[in-house]
Amino acid sequence: MTTALTPTLTDAAAARISVIAAKQAKPAILRLSVEGGGCSGFQYQFGLADAPEGDDLVSETGGVRLVVDPVSLDMVAGSVVDFVESLAGAAFKVENPLAAAGCGCGSSFGI
User: Fold this and answer.
1) Where do the structural domains in the chain lie, given as residue ranges?
2) What is the pLDDT of residues 33-71, one digit of tens each?
3) Gap between the Cα atoms of 88 and 98, Å rounded
4) At residue 11, does pLDDT exceed 90?
5) What pTM value is reported for the model?
6) Is CATH 2.60.300.12 what the domain over 8-110 is classified as, yes or no?
């Protein structure tokens, strides 16, 4: 079930995950988690998952699933994961409404 607090993927992020998963012969399932560290206190971790775990929250965009564990959900509720390409490179970017601070690279945040 998707709610306003469920993290979601943009169409661009879903498309990029589909390409990466196909190249690695894995299911199109992105795991978003949060770990301590980074220059702002917490950092986002991304990885392909083989399947959701029992207590994961799952959302789906364009046939691609985003899974988040309950502990990480407390820090990324309502977030949107996007894939952006610029002159500086290409990367997944999390737009997190709960983040009170962030770093220049966009991979860590504070609450």
Assistant:
1) 8-110
2) 998 876 667 888 999 999 999 999 999 999 999 999 999
3) 26
4) yes
5) 0.84
6) yes
